[in-house]
Write a structure and sequence with these properties.
It contains 5 helices and no strands. It is an all-alpha fold and 127 residues long. It has one domain.
């Protein structure tokens, strides 16, 4: 019986310790974000968003037609990402002869879209 108690305590005590340390670290991270200036918070959010988009690209869930990828499709569910935020389907839409999201259109065609001079082609025509 004593051996079982010792074995359990050797296993459980480190787990409890790790649990409390992780809670403490998460609270510290939140406090550090709260202490940032408005500009620093903005930069932090942009960096995190860009990292998340890069992960979505690597996972194959973000098929954007511009580089760097648009942020519009990531931030909101809309018709260009099949109403699934965090994804982008603009390149596939172009391959189907459809228009990409407004952010991609602006990047590809400029602010004044001229139908004759702006020809949008998919990077993944064979997909």
């Amino acid at each position: 019986m004593l051996k079982k108690v010792l074995i359990l305590s050797v296993l459980i005590i480190p787990l409890i310790f790790v649990f409390f340390i992780s809670i403490l670290l998460s609270k510290t991270q939140n406090l550090s974000f709260n202490n940032l200036t408005k500009e620093e918070k903005y930069q932090h959010i942009i960096e995190e968003r860009d990292l998340a988009i890069a992960e979505a690209v690597d996972a194959g869930n973000y098929k954007c037609c511009i580089k760097p990828p648009c942020t519009m499709c990531f931030m909101e569910a809309n018709q260009w990402n099949n109403f699934t935020q965090g994804t982008c389907d603009c390149d596939n839409l172009i391959a189907q002869g459809k228009e990409p999201c407004p952010q991609c259109q602006r990047e590809i065609c400029g602010t004044d879209k001229n139908e004759e001079s702006c020809h949008i082609e998919s990077e993944n025509q064979n997909d």
